[in-house]
Amino acid sequence: MFSFCASFVVAVVVSGTVLFSQPVPGTQPWTPVVRSGLQPVRVHIPVEFAAAGLNADAMPLSLPPGWTASVFYAGSEVNKGRFMAWGPDSVLYVASMNRGTVVALPDVDRNGVADRAVVAASGFVVGHDVRFWRDTMYVATENGLFVLLDQDGDRVFESRTLRIDKRSQPNQTGGNHATRTVVIDSVRSLIYYSVGSRGNAERESNRAVIEAYDLNGANRRLYATGVRNAVGMTLHPRTGRLWANNNGSDNAGNDTPGEWVDIVRENGFYGYPFAHHHQTFFDFTLQAYRGLLPITSIDSALVASMQPPAALLTGHCAPMAMEFAHPNMPAPYNRGAFLVMRGSWNRNPASGSKLVWLEYDDDSDTVANAVHDFCTGFMLDSNARPARRWGRPVGIALAADGSIYLSSDDITHVILKLTPPPTTSVPPTPLNTGSLRLSPNPVSNTAFVTWPNAPTMLSYAVVDLHGSVVSKGALQHDDLRQGVLIDCSQMAQGAYVLSLRCADGRLVEMPLVVAR
Fold first, then answer.
1. CA–CA dist 401, 471 (Å, integer)
2. Largest CA distance in the chain
3. What does the pLDDT look like over 113-148, one tens digit per residue?
4. How far apart are CA 440 and CA 162, in angstroms?
5. What would the pLDDT profile of 261-297 be if each residue is shown by its tens digit?
6. How many CB atoms lie within 10 A of CB 511?
7. CA-to-CA distance for 63 and 413, rounded, in angstroms?
8. What DSSP letter does each residue of 406-431 carry, written as one string?
9. Helix segments in 256-372, DSSP class H
10. CA 440, CA 446: separation in Å to the nearest integer?
11. Is-contact 497 468, C-beta < 8 A?
12. β-strands 33-34, 370-375 pairing
């Protein structure tokens, strides 16, 4: 895992705002946002779905260069499609929440179009999440966790057991948040189950938590608290660590609180209902938060235990499903994580309604360099009241060939397939680094990096000669054209390496020497 030098600070000037890599308590450690580099695409609607009445002109999307979009499924069997998962038969399964079903969407000929829709299981109340472990299907609902088996291989799961009965536990149903998310940790033999808050910002028991159970559903315990509504929850496929995102509380302003993404630490506290960001208390003079007073010493101790999140995203963007990339994804998207934003109701202008990519250096990295827009266009008018959208993305499934499946649960009920550009053996065009400058170098206190013709998207890292990253962050072309300030005043004398990473994975490194 990369280590950070506490005595070293790099300041990046972005549109007049100085971003620091080391957040301090009470601050808002926003993750830099990269919105450039996407191109408009026309969604392909196969003839098989002509009866669905879709209009490509009313479904604008923008994707990275070379990516394409098509409708994988559109039909009455999927109504409010939520989370998705690949079954043991390599078939995509989706929770159809309005119908209370889980639907299998086989694509036997692998032509990117679902052959048919098979109701694999039915009778669920707010069935939001579907997962598989081996040949077993897990369906997370407000009433509990169901475990199902397909005994004859026809993709209809006849055997059903209620593994976790939430109706028998106090304060588990009703209220604001009815969706439940499940993660199966086969290595630690655990089931993780998120239970959102009943209210907006209230003192609650047995809610706003992530629970842990043994695989047989026994031994219920609280794993993390202060988690208002962890809709997106996933295991990192290579480190095995549990990650989650959070839907923050309302009625505190456009940007308060930001939506966080973080590792879920056992016995960790994540702020709800008292605080947000990094140990920042809410404004208790606001009507929605007055009922939390008085704040006790126990409350304050919990807030003091909060750690800065791995990523802090736009307020009220409503993060949903989240999946870490796999090596078959095209660079640079073969590292980091994809996160779906459904978009909330109480921000003006509205936020979310898109798919983003969280950039990390590698699997051990726990602080996102940047959040990159990946699939946008669902939002037609963010300033309208209510905002105008043609869809609200929720679920995601990453295929082995690098394609991405995306569900929309509202307005337009479709499953989209996002296909990466064809692979090529042609080597990438060499970078034009002729205008790249670092001056002065050696440096005493401050230096500037400029690169007028830099690629659109970059991340940077400053590394010491032991290989430890002492600072990192995200850059855009305009940053480098105007100049990126590096504060070296507190660095020890010696040699460092400044690394600039392009969006396609190409790396430029240059020496940085501190001498006084």
1. 34
2. 75
3. 999 999 999 999 999 999 999 999 999 999 999 999
4. 67
5. 999 999 999 999 999 989 999 999 999 999 999 999 9
6. 11
7. 20
8. EEE-SSS-EEEEEEPPPP--SPPPPP
9. 297-304
10. 8
11. no
12. parallel
